[in-house]
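Lab notebook page, bench 4
Experiment: in silico fold of construct C2
Operator: M.H.
Input chain length: 156 residues
Purpose: comparison with the prior construct
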Amino acid sequence: MNKEKLYRPNVAAIIVSSNYPKVKEIFIAQRNDLEGVWQFPQGGIDEGEEVREALFRELEEEIGTNSVEIISEYPQWLSYDFPSKIAKNMQPWIGQRQKYFLVKLKKDAKIDINTKHPEFNDYKFVKVDDVLELSASFKQDVYEKVIDYFKKEDFL
């Protein structure tokens, strides 16, 4: 089997507040199943679903709103492997292949992580340089690439 097919297609959002670009802080949420692990909202792309359609659906499902404006899109897909303790629950996938978007919350957006199937138990906005300290180690390389790209493009 082609190794590429073993990576789950996924979309992820780096969210800045409605005060952007005056304030450049990023939304990060703590997983409710992994204590102390913070991440960007993300989720699988359903069969036949367009990437941007998945982005808005996942935001609604995970943070209770899809009231965002897309600022930029990372130009490539990025992959990471699941750690062994997570991989056993994610069969047949060995990791995720992700498309990243930088999005800004609209003024009327109301974040509510108490969704139908909550994935997070807390959230906060943090300085760009603090994200890597809080994120899961197996995601840090991808997070660093995406954040560095958006910094280089003068978005963050």
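Observations: Residues 10 and 45 are 5 Å apart (CA to CA). The chain has four helices and eight strands.
Next step: discuss at group meeting.
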